[in-house]
Specification:
PER33/POM33_regulator; mainly alpha; TMEM33/Pom33; single chain; transmembrane; 11 helices; about 75% helix; membrane; transmembrane helix
Length: about 230
């Protein structure tokens, strides 16, 4: 009854579980490398479907207007719909599947707990314990996802020069990264950029750091800072 009463949430839950399943079979290619590539695409397509359903839930009344598009781009679900479309037809990159896998795992765990509560307050204690441990480490997982989002930017540039990516991919991914940086619900990308800058500045200001390395790093920090969007 609980699942039927929340059909959209249940559909997203099933999609997220399928995303976790496909992502796991890509990261651990138990069925062979050829099959792993197809599981990579399936995971991203399932994530795109989940993101589209979540976006529909957040903005149920679609309008073909600039205002609606601007509102949609503020939603995290729109960001990961774009993310899935960026990588779904690209060369499989293990780093790109981790945000999809971990976000799906976190959201699926949250809804699984609701399903267990609807069934019985004491049902499946072993599973409840696993879900609780996952929830306890949520902040570290979100930081790891943000780290993946950041380091995928130079990875897309490397893929371009190695012949495994398209010319547009780094530019579209840069747009995705600016959306994540400006996210209202998830500040971890912004936080990680700040923490990485503090750590790097601390390292290059040591006397043992060569002057040319310090200048190169300071120039890079200044360049990246200029690219960062303004956050209200």
């Amino acid at each position: 009854q609980f699942l039927m009463a929340n059909k959209l949430d249940t559909a997203m839950w099933i999609c997220r579980l399928f995303t976790v399943y496909c992502s796991a079979l890509f990261v651990l290619p138990l069925l062979g490398l050829h099959e792993a590539a197809s599981f990579y695409q399936r995971a991203l397509l399932a994530n795109a479907l989940t993101s589209a359903l979540r976006l529909h839930q957040r903005l149920p009344h679609f309008q073909l207007s600039r205002a609606f598009l601007a509102q949609a781009l503020l939603e995290d679900s729109c960001h990961y719909l774009l993310y899935s479309l960026i990588f779904v037809n690209s060369y499989p990159v293990t780093m790109s599947i981790f945000p999809v896998l971990l976000f799906s795992l976190l959201h699926a765990a949250t809804y699984t707990k609701k399903v267990l509560d609807a069934r019985s307050s004491n049902s499946l204690p072993f599973l409840r314990n696993l879900l609780e441990k996952l929830n306890t480490n949520q902040q570290n997982i979100l930081k790891f996802i943000a780290c993946n989002e950041i380091f995928l930017m130079p990875a897309t540039v490397f893929m371009l020069f190695s012949g495994q990516g398209s010319l547009l991919q780094p530019f579209i991914y840069y747009r995705f990264l600016t959306l994540r940086y400006s996210s209202r619900r998830n500040p971890y990308c912004r936080t990680l950029f700040t923490e990485l800058r503090i750590v790097l500045e601390h390292l290059i200001m040591k006397p043992s750091c060569p002057v040319f390395v310090r200048r190169l790093c300071l120039s890079s920090i200044s360049f990246i800072s200029r690219l960062a969007p303004t956050v209200a």
